[in-house]
Amino acid sequence: MRLAEKVVPFYFGSPDKLLFGCYHEPSLERRRKCAVVVCQPVGHEYINSHRALRQLAARLSDAGFPVLRFDYYGCGDSSGSREEGTILQWLEDISTAISEVRSRTAVVQVCLIGLRLGGTLAMIAAAERADLESMVLWDPVVSGKGYLDGLLRLQKEMLRFRPKPSSAQEPQGYLDVLGFPLSRFLRAELEKIDLPPIAVSPAKDVLVIQSDQTAGEANLKEHFSQTETRLEYQRFDGPQIWRPTSDGSLLVPSQILHSIVRWTHRVHA
Amino acid sequence: MREEAVLFGEVKSLIGILTDPPMRNGNHPKPAVILLNPGIVHRVAPGRIYVGMARALAAMGFVVLRFDFSGIGDSAVRYDNLPFDKSAVRETQDAMHFLEATRGVGRFILLGGCSGARISLQTACCDPRVVGAFLINLQMTEDEGQNSDQVTRSAAFYYWNFALFNLRSWCKLLTGKANYRNILRALGFQARTQFASGGRMSAESIQLAANLRMLAERGAYVTFLYAQSDPRLNDLCEVVGRELKQLRALGKVRVQIIPRSDHTFSSLDDQEKLLKEICELIDAITPATAGAPLNQRQDQPPQSVQETLPHHGGK
Asked: Which of A199, B157, B158, B226 has the fewest CB atoms found within 10 Å of its own CB?
């Protein structure tokens, strides 16, 4: 597939907390009335899934959607240090990104696509705003405690075939999770994530993509049960692309990307 | 310090972040530093190492550009069928042209991890504007990273160089808590490579030795940085060990080992040591000290870093 894409890198947001974004201009002949904001995961999951989410943005823009991928404060190319990231700040960043894509495209309808913690943040942000058209939740984190347990297990696994680091990071207030500092404050915020049922529809249409077979489908269904949201569930057998691979390769799950583009296309036809 | 998103290259398809220092000295401008993709990871690098590195170097007065090669990270793919090693060198030169045009800098330090180290070296060899190259965990061949034996090799290296001397590892082995299948696989791998290693990579070693001599004559600083648990350091010693020894003795090349670290510097401790080492070494290549051999300058490696060559632990 040859994509004649145009990608514009830029900084946006408040001058003291500039966020980095990549705007993918839509294919002109198929331009749609809905813009997409991609909410990425954080830490090593952000690094590992960057390639897949960049591909997803390219496919969506080729299908006519203006797409904004952006980095949260303290993550990726955005300003701030790694230790400064908090859930509250990242939720604010999603709002800033939505405003940015609206002003850049003059399109009102917005679809949020979030992977892992990005999916969870998208859900929380959407429920607070209640002005979004659609949402794609790709293996969202449904339990903060489970998420943290997974990170710590992975860190232990990583230490198996390498010399142990010489200094302990915990006394400084940070846990070392695959080379990313996890502050006590962020850990406490993450522990609180436990999606209770909500009453307000966060978006008219929601697609849930599940490739992690251990994640709670029931929790998500219950979360949306009291709303009028049209919920669609799709399961895929495949690797969890956000996890580190043994040979350092970065995975792009073509089937999932295709499915997301097809669903977004159908919902915003 | 100011960060700016930039587009450059033949068709303005290369995406990068330019980090400017708070103030620049116009009379003695420092060389600009260009950070090259570590493998296929985008310009942020594992653990966001390149972001911290660019900011620290900018705070020291360097202009720093980290960007994505075509087809990696955010940069668009190329359609000219140029092999990666050629297109990456050309794009690194594009980055230098861009910095010359926009920042008026004419001398460059290249820094890259893994395949980025190989591209740094290749570009340094063909472009005299490069005055320094920092090669982190240099891999010797282009397809090495795709070798499925690499994982077993890392495990074998770990067993021979670390676990063998670790009391806890012996306790695990003797109490049945060790993964015996992994250990046997690693030992088997080690035995196979032991027999296969004679006379290895002769053409490569001749080329690499010639390149290092040429760079030394040109006065470019070459620093090899290796994570202590990365088996690639053994490759380097095997391929150009003798040449390296001579050039190091003359102060033309430096080899630094970051202790207790791994290939991707996947702990905060690794990253801190790497950053400290790079800042100190790059600071040494300034107009005030440029021209003097590395071993005659006052810069001492930090205590945490070893400047020695391995004695081929498992080989």
From this structure: A199
